[in-house]
Amino acid sequence: MWCGLEPAQGRTLSAHKRAGDPARRHWNTATPADAMPWTEDDHPMSMRHLSEAARRKAIEIANALLAEGMDEGLAIRIAIARAKAWAQRHGLPVRDDE
Fold this sequence. Notes:
Layout: H1 13-19, H2 52-67, H3 72-89
Helix pairs in contact: 2-3
């Protein structure tokens, strides 16, 4: 899944870190095997008030970001924001109380 956060062409992630690129400060060196994917039953507490559809999308996005090596906290925040926007674009409820 493309998230617009890949390193610049011709540069590796470690080169961004060495260069002190602030846009890359949230990336870590975790491998996909180190990341624990979230599920419908086991998801971050910050996703608890999303509607079922938005939560599923947020989990999908967050897992993809983790697989790419992104920091867990940042992956959660980005996933929630993108899932809310996705739900609004599709005319679906964003929160579980809507």
